[in-house]
Design brief:
By secondary structure, the protein is α/β, with parallel strands linked by helices. The chain is 34% helix and 21% strand. About 3% of the residues have low confidence. Keywords: Cytoplasm, Histidine metabolism, Hydrolase, Iron, Metal-binding, Zinc.
Length: 408
């Protein structure tokens, strides 16, 4: 693949505050961009653009860094639509439904799970996501957790071992914890970059602070980076534990105390907010304003899973964050791109500049404001190297590919 010159960019969001309008988004107008292989080779004024092997004209569309979805559970079979309907009729979420997805996922063949995962990757790219983190956690046996991570590793480098999702049906809590921190961790660590734990004392199925600490300590000793599902259903110990242990991210952060906010503001742990969960569980949204105003780093992700957030749409998440969480459109886009990259401790994605990955998302709109301004309208699409996807952004939706590209 040779070099590609992209012109006709209505607005180029770089997330580099050192260029463009001086904002955190580093917005450039009248800019062009050259891609060479999988990297950005040049960004600058269109009038000074160098030659390239091929050219793509975006016709005035906005170009933004590809979305970084730093929290998903994409390896699963079955759905829980009836559980969702019951919640909409007033039932509360407590994690008990995870057992149904575990049963369906264990029953699925490798080929079935691979096909389901491939279709979800196509769905993500079609909505502008170019980097995705994928957790295990619907296997909960050594073999089923290893299988989920192997499949996830076929499509992303960001794989997370979540054996400590819930205590599986029929297992004794202590024995399961010993398995997760022992034999299961040893088998899964070679296939994972991260370890995660559902730390939630308010759920009878999930793990309390001491249990979560044990899981994370074992994961760190095995060389894995740390992530935490924390403070989803109650103001539990997840956030402070994550910050204390230097986790890359603590996710949900729906119920926070003053001490939690202070810890996030002072620490290096990203607060990854997942408003698809509050939408689908009819719960109060996290207080993003309080976190941002305190100086915490905020990311936005889908948490795509069949229980609490069966959406793969980062544009929907951005729209929810703006409308329901009082984030500005700029803050929400940053959190969905550079924020996600920080949550994954990546500096090659989430920001556009020479040498960074050429993970580009084109909007069928003149500016990033339209992501929240046009909720539910499919304006965002990942641009393939070579420019494929521009026509699709203009309206013709291409059918799902049989072999989708992996998401770094
Ligand atoms: O992030 N909270 C725990 N895990 C998932 C939900 C999993 C499920 O209900 O299937 C979450 O919300
Ligand atoms: Fe989750």
């Amino acid at each position: 693949m040779g070099s590609v010159l992209i012109t006709g960019i209505g607005e180029l969001v770089t997330n580099d505050p050192g260029v463009g309008d001086g904002s955190a988004l580093g917005v450039l107008t009248d800019a062009a961009l050259v891609v060479d292989g999988d990297r950005v080779a040049w960004i600058g004024p269109a009038a000074h653009a160098p030659d390239a092997d091929t050219r793509v004209d975006l016709g005035g569309r906005a170009l933004v860094p590809g979305f970084v979805d730093a929290h998903t559970h994409l390896v699963f079979a079955g759905d829980r639509a009836a559980e969702f309907a019951a919640r909409m009729a007033g039932a509360r979420y407590d994690g008990g439904g995870i057992a149904a997805t575990v049963a369906a996922t264990r029953r699925a063949t490798d080929a079935q799970l691979r096909a389901l995962l491939a279709a979800r990757i196509v769905e993500l790219r079609a909505q502008g996501t170019t980097t995705v983190e994928i957790k295990s956690g619907y296997g909960l046996t050594v073999a089923d957790e290893v299988r989920a991570l192997r499949l996830a590793a076929e499509v992303t480098a960001e794989t997370t071992f979540l054996g400590a999702h819930v205590v599986p049906t029929g297992a004794a809590r202590d024995a399961y914890l010993a398995l997760v921190t022992g034999e299961m961790l040893a088998a899964c660590a070679p296939h994972a970059r991260w370890i995660d734990v559902f730390c939630e004392p308010a759920s009878p199925h999930a793990f309390d602070g001491d249990e979560a600490r044990a899981v994370l300590a074992a994961g760190a000793a095995a060389g894995l980076g740390l992530r935490v599902h924390g403070n989803q259903l109650s103001a539990g110990p997840g956030v402070t534990l994550a910050v204390e242990l230097g986790a890359a991210s603590v996710d949900h952060c729906t119920h926070l105390t003053r001490a939690d906010v202070d810890a996030l503001a002072a620490g290096t742990t990203v607060a990854t907010l997942l408003p698809g969960v509050e939408f689908s569980t009819r719960s109060p949204y996290p207080d993003a304003r309080r976190l941002l105003d305190a100086g915490a780093t905020v990311a936005l992700a889908t948490d795509c899973n069949p229980g609490t957030s069966y959406t793969s749409s980062m544009p929907l998440i951005i729209a929810l964050a703006v409308r329901e969480m009082r984030m500005t459109p700029a803050e929400a886009l940053w959190a969905a791109t550079a924020g996600g990259a920080r949550a994954l401790r990546r500096d090659d994605v989430g920001v556009l500049g020479p040498g960074r990955r050429a993970d580009l998302t084109v909007l069928d709109a003149p500016s990033h404001l339209h992501l929240a301004y046009r909720p539910g309208v499919p304006i965002a699409r990942a641009l393939s190297p070579g420019g494929e996807g521009v026509a699709s952004a203009a309206g013709s939706v291409s059918p799902a590919a049989a072999a989708p590209p992996a998401l770094g």
